[in-house]
Amino acid sequence: MKWKRNDKIVRHYAKQKANTSLTLELLEDGILPNTYDDSGQTLLHIAIQLNEKAALILIDAGAELNGDNSKRDVGPPIHTAVINYRIFKALIDAGADIFRLTNAQRNIVDSTMKQTWFKYGKDLIRVLEFSLNAGVDPTALNEYDSCALDQGVDVDWLDKVVETFSKYGYEYNQPPTGGGIW
């Protein structure tokens, strides 16, 4: 599917919180689901963050699942979707590549560990489990010479993260960060 840059449409879409009816209207008007802005965010990236139903509509409409990292600063949509397991799983089921890296060479486990745990913890644990079970290596170094096991997590989720990594034979021993919702 073609890519088309249109900053105005993408910004309007974000301001409207990826409204489901707007999503359908844009598609009906011939706006490509792969429309992106100057930072590389597509309609799908925005919908993943703001409106689950809109994200699922865009996936069904043929939005690019694996991204074209060579042309954009933003990683593939699956790296954004780690905050919502249902969207993450829908992307996998539609053919997204769980092993696709970001421009910074982060794998999906690394991207998961960088998220806001006090806000998305339940989904992040499910994504972490799925990714480790699929064979994603949490020790793979990104361009900053760090890996998923180097990332801190919120104190409220530390035990579950340690348990999850241990289940797959990895030792996680970073000190906790934060302390839940402030």
TrEMBL record:
Record Pfam families: Ank_2 (PF12796)
Stored Gene3D superfamilies: Ankyrin repeat-containing domain
InterPro entries in the cross-refs: Ankyrin_rpt, Ankyrin_rpt-contain_sf
Protein name: Ankyrin repeat domain-containing protein
Organism: Aporhodopirellula aestuarii
Lineage: Bacteria, Pseudomonadati, Planctomycetota, Planctomycetia, Pirellulales
